[in-house]
Amino acid sequence: MRHPILAILAFGGAALLGACGGKGSDVDRAVQSVNAIDENNLSDIMLSVADPAEAVAYFKRATAEKPERIDLQRNLGKSLVKANLNVEAAGAWSRVTTMAGASAGDQVSYADALIRAGQWDKAEAVLDAVPPTHETYTRYKLEAMIADGNKEWAKADSFYETAVGLTTRPSGVLNNWGYSKLSRGEYLDAERLFGEAIKYDPGLFTAKNNLVLARGAQRRYQLPIVDVDQTERAQLLHTMALTAIKQGDVEIGKSLLRDAIDTHPQHFEDAARALTALEGARS
Fold first, then answer.
1. How is 9-44 classified by DSSP, letter by letter?
2. pLDDT score recorded for residue 50
3. pTM for the model
């Protein structure tokens, strides 16, 4: 797919060279330059808007034709991650890290792919080899996740805090940090972090659901004041109901399930099934 701007560039460049009577080598260089622009533009399109499977197929062809191109190998790794082919993505990023021109950022991308593939120990080893001077949001986000997995809470908090300071869009890492606090039983801190995540991204439903879990864990069974549509409100009521039931507050849970069923604009099968099971158990 060639954008009109690129087509104009190609045509205009050829016309200019023809009018000037340039030598053949000049023409070749100009064409190569335009082709390079076109190729880079197509790579961006494949990564940003193309179907993930199509992007993978495109970059597999490209890397087979030009295996020495590290930029294409990187794009193959990115496309595989986007397609959730995480084991294959880890292999692709592993190759990138061995190529001439590989950077510390490539090692971080390799570690990211390894974590996605469930290879946490290997990811930790890869991150340990990244120079400490390479200070990026992604690096510290991954470091925090690994520290979390190792239950090294002080390190995790430090890495999360650093990651938040290195991005203008911290909602995702704030949500992860909040979930870490939730898993430790630090419910007030978790609630605060989920609230911050929602402020940065009001549409982040995962953080809203986690916020309900944090409040429910404290036996505070009122929904937080957040912007939700009717379906989302019903889902949050369902989450709160299950939290109450898990803690032994069955009657409150049943009431919340009824609210969820009444709130949902369609038939809420999960809530209805849970309510039926509870009422059957008590009959």
1. HHHHHHHHHHHHT--HHHHHHHHHHHHHHHHHHHHH
2. 80
3. 0.80
Place of tokens 């419910």: 187
The Cα–Cα gap between 148 and 163 comes to: 14
Q: Is residue 215 part of a domain?
A: no
Same-domain check for residues 91 and 118: yes
**Residue 168 dihedral angles phi and psi, to the nearest 5°:** -90, -5
* Sign of the Cα pseudo-torsion (53, 72, 66, 86, in order): negative
Residues of the chain with pLDDT under 70: 1-39, 281-283
**Would you call 275 exposed, middle or buried from its count of C-beta atoms within 10 A (0-12, 13-18, 19+)?**
buried
Tell me how many degrees the CA angle 206-248-273 measures, rounded to the nearest 5. Answer: 60
**For residue 83, what is the domain's CATH number?**
1.25.40.10
Identify whether 88 is part of a domain: yes
Residue 190: enclosing H or E segment and its boundaries?
helix 187-200
* Assigned token pair, 88: 């294959």
DSSP 168: S
The CA angle 56-61-66, to the nearest 5 degrees, is 120
Most distant CA pair in the chain, distance: 94
Do 14 and 71 lie in a common domain? no
User: 73 is written with which tokens?
Assistant: 């190998």
Instruction: Give the pLDDT score at 43.
Output: 86
> What is the pLDDT at residue 11?
34
How many structural domains are present in the chain? 2
In terms of residue numbers, what domain contains 88?
A: 51-123
Rounded Cα distance between 184 and 179, Å, is 9
Q: Which of 200, 257, 199, 245 is nearest to 224 (CA)?
A: 199
Extract the tokens encoding 228. 């939700």
Residue 96 lies in a domain: yes
